[in-house]
Amino acid sequence: MRIALLVLGWLLVVASPVVGALPGPGGIFVFAAGAGLLLRNSLWAKRRYAAFKRRWPRHGHWIDRGLRRPSARRRRDRARAEKADGGGPDGGGLTLPGALPIRPIRQRPPNGGPFYSDDGK
Questions:
Q1: Residue 91 is assigned to a structural domain of this protein
Q2: Are 23 and 54 within one domain?
Q3: Max mean pLDDT range (8-17, 23-32, 57-66, 105-114)
Q4: Which residues does 64 contact at the CB level (< 8 Å), separation at least 6?
Q5: Are 9 and 21 found together in one domain?
Q6: How many Å apart are CA 93 and CA 85, to the nearest integer?
Q7: How far apart are the C-alpha atoms of 13 and 19, rounded to whole Å?
Q8: Domain coverage including residue 12
Q9: Model's pTM, two decimal places?
Q10: How many domains does the chain have?
Q11: Is residue 118 part of a domain?
Q12: Whether 23 and 4 share a structural domain
C-alpha cells in the first residue's frame, strides 16, 4: 500500500504542471496533494522537507498548516497561550534589567589590532 501511495504522490507532483496549464488554480492543489502523500510515505521527502524548513521557516509554517500537521497546531496553540498570558514563554510581558545577562565590555587591544587605526584613516 505504501508503494502505491508513493507512486500516486509522484504522479500527482508530475501531473501538476499539466493541470496547472488549465484555467483555474487546479495545479496548486494537485501538487499539494502529491507533496502530502510523499511527505507521509517517503523518508527522503521528509528529510528534504526538514532541510527546507530549516532554511525557510516561514514557508515551512504554511506547509505545516496546509498538511494539518500536529506540530503546526501545537505551535499555534502555544503562541495563542503566550499572547493571552502577556508575552514570553515565562509568562511575563517585560524583562527586568537586573535579569539580563551582563557581558564585559570589549576593550581595545593595546597594540591597536588589525581593525583599529591611530593614524586618522
A1: no
A2: no
A3: 8-17
A4: 71, 72, 75
A5: yes
A6: 8
A7: 10
A8: 1-41
A9: 0.51
A10: 2
A11: no
A12: yes
Q: How far apart are CA 106 and CA 43, in angstroms?
A: 47
Question: How confident is the model over 13-40, as pLDDT tens digits?
Answer: 999 998 888 888 888 889 888 988 998 8
Of the candidates 62, 41, 60, the one whose C-alpha atom is nearest the C-alpha of residue 49 is: 60
Q: What is the mean pLDDT of residues 88-109?
A: 56
Contact (CB, 8 A) for 46 and 36 = no
87: cell is 508575552
What is the DSSP track for the chain? -HHHHHHHHHHHHHHHHHHHTSSSSHHHHHHHHHHHHHHHH-HHHHHHHHHHHHH-HHHHHHHHHHHT-HHHHHHHHHHHHHHHHTSSTTS-S---GGGSPP-PPPPPPTT--TT--SS--
